[in-house]
Design brief:
- The chain is an alpha/beta fold.
- It has eight helices and seven strands.
- Strands 1-7-6-2-3-5-4 form a seven-stranded parallel sheet, with helices on both faces.
């Protein structure tokens, strides 16, 4: 099921000038409170986010596209903190896709450096909050070694945390994940008649990760863009108009409330 949510305040905010947007790496001054209509006993276990709209946010302010990516750090931190506040146990964030290598080289270099610096600045903070950091995606020759080093350091630092698992989908593609799982099955010599859903799941990047209950894609675009294709078969989908740099925990809460109003049937009928 899908939903497009338009917040009048967000649309108005998109027309603001460059001096009115969030500053890079800053935290929101006043965190949004949890709405009373949000049922804390029925919070989704796993929320996944496609962080879309950074370039459009920057373009609307006459800024380089890279400025939108930088501004998105505030959104990421506030959404993660909001998820922690309401007890979400798993969050997956689409940080860099296998298709993003097609973007201009300067933008790709910026994203590599930005993700490295983000880990340097924020890994200790997330660790203190009990967040375990993971990375889903291919570790191939295109990812700079310095970035892989920071990723590994973040994984090692936070590996014992249990309050929340935050997975960054980095150099990730849903089709690539399925291909990699099938290749692993072939390499193990698994006969065709033994390959089923359970066998494929065991060979996904993180077999222990529960399927997302809720997927949020910002910016109003109503597509999946090769994100967690296997895992989101029965996820609820929400498409707020908010551009990612303007995303805050209140938008997460609104999406969770929308999720709680739905009836999940998983192919069956209501009792």
């Amino acid at each position: 099921m899908t939903s497009a949510v338009r917040d009048p305040g967000d649309i108005q905010g998109q027309d603001q000038g460059p001096n009115h947007g969030p500053k890079h790496g800053s935290d929101p001054d006043t965190p949004d409170p949890v709405p009373p209509e949000l049922d804390l006993t029925r919070v989704p276990v796993h929320v996944a986010c496609v962080m879309d709209g950074n370039g459009r946010w920057a373009n609307a302010r006459g800024l380089p596209r890279t400025e939108g990516h930088g501004a998105g750090e505030t959104a990421l931190l506030d959404v993660v903190n909001g998820a922690l506040e309401i007890g979400i146990k798993w969050i997956t964030l689409y940080a860099f896709s296998t298709e993003n290598w097609r973007r201009p080289p300067d933008e790709v270099r910026y994203l590599m450096n930005f993700n490295q610096s983000l880990l340097m600045r924020r890994a200790d903070e997330l660790n203190d909050k009990g967040v375990q950091i993971r990375f889903a995606g291919r570790r191939d020759w295109r990812v700079p070694r310095r970035v892989l080093k920071r990723m590994d350091e973040s994984i090692e630092l936070t590996k014992h945390n249990r309050r929340m698992v935050m997975t960054m989908a980095f150099n990730y593609g849903g089709r690539a994940e399925i291909i990699d799982a099938v290749r692993a099955l072939v390499e193990e010599g698994i006969p065709a008649n033994k390959i089923d859903e359970k066998a494929i799941r065991r060979h996904l990047y993180f077999p222990d990760m529960p399927d997302p209950d809720l997927v949020i894609r910002t910016s109003g675009e109503t597509r999946i863009s090769n994100f967690l294709l296997w895992e989101i078969a029965y996820s609820e989908l929400v498409f707020p108009e908010t551009l990612w740099p303007d995303m805050r925990r209140r938008h997460l809460y609104e999406a969770v409330i929308d999720y709680q109003r739905r009836v999940r049937r998983f192919g069956a009928v209501n009792p």
